[in-house]
C-alpha cells in the first residue's frame, strides 16, 4: 500500500494538471505547500516518527515537494502561454500599427556638441565646475572690482549663505588654474545665470563655452587664429571675422568679435558673437595667492581667454527669432531639429 505522502503527491499533481486559471493554481499551491499545507505538515510530524521511519519519510517528503513544485511551475508557464495566445488571437492585425516617434537632441545640446567638437580638434580639454560658486571664484579672482555692476544683486543671484549662481563659466578657468600648473588648454561648457528680464533675446539662464589657454609665449595672434578657425568651422569657410577693442576686467587687451557670413539666414551683416582677450596679470597673481606659490608667474606665462554664448550662436546659426523657444518644449519647434 502506498504511503500517505505518495497519495498526497498524486492528488496534488492531478489537481495542478487540471487547473484552469492562475487563482486555482495558487490555491492548490497553498493547500499542499503552504505553511499549513498537507504536505508541509509532514515536516512537523517527522519529530514523532521513530529513527527507522525518519529517513524513509524524509525521502518521500522531499520527493513530494520537488514533484509538486515542478508541476506548479510547468502549469504556471502553460497558463501564461494560453493567456498570451488568447490575447494575441484578439488582435486585429489589419489595423495600422502605432507609430513610434524617435527623439532627438535639443538644438542647444546640438550647438554645444558642435562647438565642443571643434575645440577638441584644436587640443582643448573639457573642464567642469559647480553652478553654485563663491564670490571669490566668480568675481575677485577675475579682477572684478567690489563696485562693479555685475556684483549688484540686481544682476547676480545671491544665495542666503553669500554664495552666487555663477554669472559665467570663467569660474571653471580659475578652478582649473588652482588645481593644475601651466601649461593648460581647456574649455568650460555649461550654464550661467544672471538677473535678466526674460524676453526674445535675454534669459535668466543661458549657456556658454568659455576657453582658457596658458603657456609660454601665447600672444594675440594665437587668440586670433584660434577663434577665427572656430568661427569659420561653425559659420562656413568664407565667413569674415573682425576684432573690436573692448573692456573686460579679467583680460587686457580685450576684444569683441563680430562675424559676417553668406550662409546665415539673416543675410550678410556683422553680428557680435564673442568676447575675448589676453589674461590680465592680476588674474594670475590672484590665482598664485590661492595656490600659495608662483606657478602662474605673469612674467613667464601668458594666455588668452574667451567666452561664447551658445544660445546666441544657435539663434544666429539656425535663424531662431526668440530665445524663449529653447525652453518652451513646443514639439512644433523642436521637430525642426530632428
CATH topology of the largest domain: BirA Bifunctional Protein, domain 2
Order of helices and strands: HHHHHEEHEHEEHEEEHEHH
Helix-strand category: alpha+beta
Mean pLDDT: 89
Count the E strands. 9
Estimated helix fraction: 40-55%
Q: At the fourth CATH level, what is the homologous superfamily of the largest domain? A: Bira Bifunctional Protein, Domain 2
> What Rg do the Cα atoms give?
36 Å
List low-confidence stretches: none
* Number of discrete domains: 2
| Termini separation | 77 Å
CATH class of the largest domain: Alpha Beta
Portion in strands: 15-25%
Largest sheet: 7 strands, mixed
Number of distinct helices: 11
Shape descriptor reads elongated
At CATH level 2, the architecture of the largest domain is 2-Layer Sandwich
If strands are numbered along the chain, what order do they take across the biggest sheet?
A: 1-4-5-9-8-7-6
Could you please describe the fold and organization of this structure?
With 338 residues, the protein is α+β, with helices and mostly antiparallel strands. It has 2 domains: 86 residues; 231 residues, Bira Bifunctional Protein, Domain 2 (BirA Bifunctional Protein, domain 2, 2-Layer Sandwich), CATH 3.30.930. Helices cover 41% and strands 19% of the residues. The chain has 11 helices and 9 strands. The protein has a 7-stranded mixed β-sheet with strand order 1-4-5-9-8-7-6, with helices on both faces. Strands 2-3 form a two-stranded antiparallel sheet. β6 and β7 form a beta hairpin. α1 packs antiparallel against α2, α5 crosses α10 and α7 crosses α9. The mean pLDDT is 89.
